[in-house]
């Protein structure tokens, strides 16, 4: 599955909290979600959704989940 454009560009349209979770989760995942769908929809997905759920607002949580759901469907 190839994603159109960089996932990071779509993530930049949401709040700072999800962006912080994106960066933290990418570091912890040990892979690059911008370059690998396996990373984006695997370990990174679990890390970033957990981070956003634990630390961000409901709106940011839904925006991040919407992006990831579209990317990984």
TrEMBL record:
Compartments, as annotated in UniProt: Membrane; Secreted
Entries under PROSITE patterns matching the protein: CFEM
InterPro entries hit by this protein: Extracellular_membr_CFEM_dom
Primary location class: membrane
One Pfam family of this chain: CFEM
GO terms for cellular component: extracellular region; side of membrane
Lipid bilayer topology: Lipid-anchor; GPI-anchor
Span of the signal peptide: none
Start and end residues of each CFEM domain: 1-73
Keywords in alphabetical order: Disulfide bond, Glycoprotein, GPI-anchor, Lipoprotein, Membrane, Secreted, Signal
Family: Belongs to the RBT5 family.
UniProt-recorded name of the protein: CFEM domain-containing protein
Source species: Pleomassaria siparia CBS 279.74
